[in-house]
């Protein structure tokens, strides 16, 4: 006999388990339970989402920097970061400290740029790969090489 479930929350779980055993049989439920992955401790993984967020950030700031470069700015990245900060936090009452935000955003932008370069190299190395048909590198990456 296995562990006994206790408490109000486990009562509903016991009823659900009994229903599954009646419907599919004890062996099928036990086999299915063996295949269920147990989630470890801590916060669940976000997968590749942070990578995509960094790549998007790099793309936006590079585009803004290119606009400032075309306008003749001597510090296009600084101006682009200021514009992005204004765009991101224009309606908030308590925006984050600009200098701290700028350090963080610089690191994330540079990491996102590295991910873009790595992805572009992988696609150039294998033009028939999975992403080759749908990926086109951003304009700032192609023009500045």
Q: Provide the low-confidence segments as ranges.
A: none
From the spread of the alpha carbons, the general shape counts as: elongated
Helix percentage range: 55-70%
Structural class: mainly alpha
Q: Main β-sheet: number of strands, strand sense, barrel status?
A: none
Count of helical segments? 6
Average the pLDDT over all residues and give the rounded result. Answer: 84
Number of strands: 0
SSE string, helices as H and strands as E: HHHHHH
Tally the structural domains.
Answer: 2
Global Rg: 25 Å
Cα end-to-end separation: 67 Å
- The percentage of residues in β strands lies in under 5%
Structure write-up:
The protein is an all-alpha fold. It has two domains: 1-39, no CATH class; 49-143, no CATH class. It has six helices and no strands. α1 packs across α2 (26-34), α3 (49-70) packs across α4 and α3 (49-70) crosses α5 (98-125).
Topology:
Elements lengths: L7 H17 L1 H9 L14 H22 L5 H14 L8 H28 L13 H5 L2
Short description:
This protein has 145 residues and is mainly alpha-helical. It is built from six helices and no strands.
List keywords for this structure.
0% strand; 6 helices; elongated; 145 residues; 2 domains; mainly alpha; 66% helix
């Amino acid at each position: 006999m296995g562990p006994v479930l206790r408490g109000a929350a486990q009562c509903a779980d016991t009823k659900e388990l009994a229903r599954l055993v009646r419907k599919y049989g004890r062996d099928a439920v036990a086999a299915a339970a063996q295949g269920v992955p147990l989630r470890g401790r801590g916060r669940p993984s976000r997968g590749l989402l942070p990578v995509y967020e960094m790549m998007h950030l790099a793309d936006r700031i590079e585009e803004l920097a290119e606009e400032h470069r075309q306008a003749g700015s001597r510090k296009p990245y600084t101006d682009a970061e200021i514009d992005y900060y204004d765009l991101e936090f224009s309606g908030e009452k308590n925006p984050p400290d600009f200098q701290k935000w700028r350090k963080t955003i610089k690191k994330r932008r540079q990491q996102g740029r590295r991910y873009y370069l790595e992805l572009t190299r992988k696609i150039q190395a294998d033009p028939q790969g999975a992403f080759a048909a749908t990926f086109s590198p951003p304009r700032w990456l192609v023009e500045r090489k």
